[in-house]
Amino acid sequence: MKKAGKEIPLGARAFDLLIFLVENRHRVVTKAEMLDAVWPDIAVEESNLTVQVSALRKVLGADALATIPGRGYQFVLAESAAKAKGPDSKSKPGSSILVLPFANTSNDPDQEYFSDGISEDIITDLCKVRALSVIARNTAFTFKGRAVDVAEIAGRLGVSHVVEGSVRKAGNRLRINAQLVDGATGHPVWADRYDRDLTDIFALQDEITEAIVAALKVRLVPDERAAILARPTDHPKAYENYLQARYHRAQLGVPNIQIAARLAQQALEIDPKLDLAWALLSHTQAQLYLLGLTSDNGLAAAERALALSPNLVEALAAKGRVLIGLGRLEEAVAILERGLVRAPEPLEVLPYYARALMRMERFEDAAAAYERICDLDPEYIWPAMFLETCYKAAGRPEKAQQALREALVRADRALDRNPADAYSMMSKFLCHARLGEAEQAKHFANQVKAMSPDDPMVDYNIGCALALLGETETALNFLEQGLKRANSVEFVKVLKQDVDLDSLRREPRFQKIVSEVEARALASSAK
């Protein structure tokens, strides 16, 4: 398939499903029929359909496939629209878009969170427009701070238009410049400048989004307009704190996660009804709980967000994440499937959904989900690594090697952008270890340990790498050191499932470590 003149990758299962739906477009097809048609020789769960249907809707538009409650699905895309998306016709103008991170022109690096926040909110709002295909936030932000050729970037990513701009914040005054550029010519289609008070921030974001949509000649339907105009809070200061919290959470690393948690709590002190801040607080608590740095697992915050907004995608994702950590995997899958149905941007939910499926050892289903993530975000490293694990467990060694090589390429690109990115470097040494490249693995493991000496995830992953390289005693030292600090409830099942540790399973010392983690987890759960 093509969009904006560029072929759009579509997994084999999604393509087979599309063919089956089109051939039967005159009727409703049941889930059982779809499973039999697309997976004739494999027993898979119905949840796999959720991933593939989501993939098709992302390419064809949300209205292409109708969900018939209690019955199944029907392909309802009009013939003219289907042809417009085919390989022999041009994509309609405005059907695909990249929002480059807005430049911070405040002469104050501490205001970076604000320009990033504006950019992310515009991406989120545009994702709510079903007629648009929007490049994922993670991919868009790889261009942050770089001089880019708009036409070249548009061609590489296969988008028809690019949004770029700048934000200047001084006290309570804002100046935002924004323009929409034709990806083929590099010429502006629309441009404007806005000078407003900070109290007008939500109306300003609405204006920019609606101006972009109008310039693309896309008509908003009522529910899309309502979603865009919805305001998270009436308190600009609470919103500022939330943006700062979201900015720090995106930076990764323990100090940033701790700062994000404090800022989310400050936002909630101003506006206890700010559902997005409750969801973000849940995410930060879940991460700190994993690392053994708090006793709050984030469940209460996620449930508070859902009490305020039962269909808030960020809150559904947060609760699903917490439930995975608590080992309540069936519940996690159910709530994350609710999130997938409602998410304008699947990447808000899909990584946690894939993780839950992998923890349940539903490796074929998990692989389908990770394939979708890798397609949506070509810069995301860890899904490619987890994809390798799923392929290996499913008996597909060649695909596993391909995924591992892809993960290494992605890690190298991330480190080119930020050589101090400890988590990207951690993925790099694990890739080298899985490939049996001992010298490179140890080199990067030593660098990560120097950068993050107290992070139990670093110790755990170094232990995994050394186990793969056959250095049993040193691997056990790192595992023991890291697991003493990490949360036992989170790690008790991971230890039993992690294939990187298979060479240690008969070691008495490893068995003792597992027993100790199990005992701590049991004691913690009993409290």
Describe this entry's structure for a reader:
It is a single chain. The chain has 527 residues and is of the alpha/beta class. Helices cover 60% and strands 10% of the residues. It contains 25 helices and eleven strands. The chain has helices at 12-23, 31-38, 47-60, 79-84, 112-127, 137-140, 150-157, 201-215, 222-229, 236-251, 254-270, 275-290, 299-308, 313-325, 329-342, 350-359, 363-376, 382-393, 397-417, 422-434, 438-451, 456-468, 472-485, 488-497, 508-526, and strands at 2-3, 6-7, 29-30, 65-68, 72-75, 96-99, 103-104, 133-134, 161-170, 173-182, 188-197. The strands form three sheets. Strands 6, 7, 8, 9, 10 and 11 form a six-stranded mixed β-sheet that branches. A three-stranded antiparallel β-sheet has the order 3-5-4. Strand 1 (2-3) and strand 2 form a beta hairpin. The radius of gyration is 23 Å and the shape is globular. It starts with a strand and ends with a helix. Residues 78-94 have low confidence and may be disordered.
Proportion of β residues?
5-15%
The strand count comes to: 11
Q: What is the makeup of the main sheet?
A: 6 strands, mixed
How far apart lie the N and C ends? 54 Å
Task: Look at the helices and sheets and give the structural class.
Answer: alpha/beta
What is the rounded Rg? 23 Å
Output the number of helix runs: 25
Mean pLDDT: 85
Shape: globular
- Poorly predicted ranges: 78-94
**Oligomerization status of the protein chains:** single chain
Percent of residues in helices? 55-70%
